[in-house]
């Protein structure tokens, strides 16, 4: 092999190693953000990944990546182990975006593949793309345009072999696929079968079919990872909803588990098991501190011993059940008690399950996950709107009150936003109520895509929404909502072969630290007045209520 070619191949290999490590750093960063920087293990993983990237970049003389990795590693060493301040996180976000921009570039290997094989080389994205493989190019372009509006990145393919190759290089979050994508019958399903075989976990596939709807086709589609099957047509808005459901743009938060056990060694053991299982434990060894722990940690699941100094687990369970907010939180007894009648009696006193010590870690983890899923599902029925999945009116006001108390204590700003779809009755009259529901769902998804994880979005009622923006002043809130309003008003709402656009009006009220007695009800009234002013002035605009003045 000529020396020049050998050198080029080594360079490609080094480039790929650094790129792969950069992807690991980006992934660790996303996981830290998903846990609000409260998971020390994830923060540690990010530190280790960035240090490794720095070593690789130095070794392979890749100066740009080395410089960025140095900045990330240096900043991570300054961050406290259990939390991070907002200024440091903003700086870190800048470094991460800088790394992402370098990682987005095609590697030399990808360029070579593209040149010689005519196949698009793999690209690395901060958010994994959605793959679109449809025979109808016009419809595919409409889907891609809609995805772009909602903040999703997508790639369109024209050949099954390109889709298979790209999926092997960069696993997508979801694939939208024609059952007959390609030259032969059911060639799209055949392509999915091939690409799924290259991955340990299946990729969710949303199938579209214009001609086939028989049981054999549906079974084969399901076996190849098909989560949805649309025949004969699907509305782009409905398809976007399904794509959002199967992507991991909003990763599931770890379950918050309160562990109450007077034995320090046992408490540490449970704590370690839960952390390894991807959960967020909070341990207390003094049962008399239960009320403080409940208030501070707000657990989703509680694990407690049966026999502790000062009280029994049953007595503690009754006290917990007297707190309205924790009436439905699962309580799991973990004890050496093996008398079945005593176990049943304990469960009748407010417990939901009984596990006997010693317990296998996998059994404990599985039980917590099962209980956690059910608890979240029941909670969602109580606090979320059934159409949009956003918080309902009552819970939105509860969250506003909570954030208002935090703002008072920390001396931080807080903004409350109310927005209302313009001329919504005309949409129902002209296009029907199902289309009106779809518009409401599109706005809810639009808000979720463009607001922070720490913001709270609720459906206030009908076509009215509310948003709680912690640590956000009037100017920032106005900028954010103006940008969302302008973008949403340009979003095509597909209806058959036509489309139309919808706008909304918005009112903002900001907590004034000069009025510490101001409560949630007063803030709502001020936001409502600002919204009324926006409607009165012609709609499709944003108005604010500041210091008793509308602006």
Commentary on this structure:
Strand 4 (205-208), helix 9 and strand 5 form a beta-alpha-beta unit. The chain starts with a helix and ends with a strand. The protein is built from 20 helices and 20 strands. The strands form 5 sheets. The chain has a 6-stranded mixed beta sheet with strand order 14-15-13-18-19-20, with helices on both faces. Strands 2-1-3-4-5 form a 5-stranded parallel beta sheet, sandwiched between helices. A 5-stranded parallel beta sheet has the order 7-6-8-11-12, with helices on both faces. It folds into 4 domains: 3-111, Four Helix Bundle (Hemerythrin (Met), subunit A) (Up-down Bundle), CATH 1.20.120; 127-246, Rossmann fold, CATH 3.40.50.2300; 256-382, 3-Layer(aba) Sandwich (Rossmann fold); 393-550, Alpha-Beta Plaits (2-Layer Sandwich). The chain is globular, with a radius of gyration of 27 Å. By secondary structure, it is of the alpha/beta class.
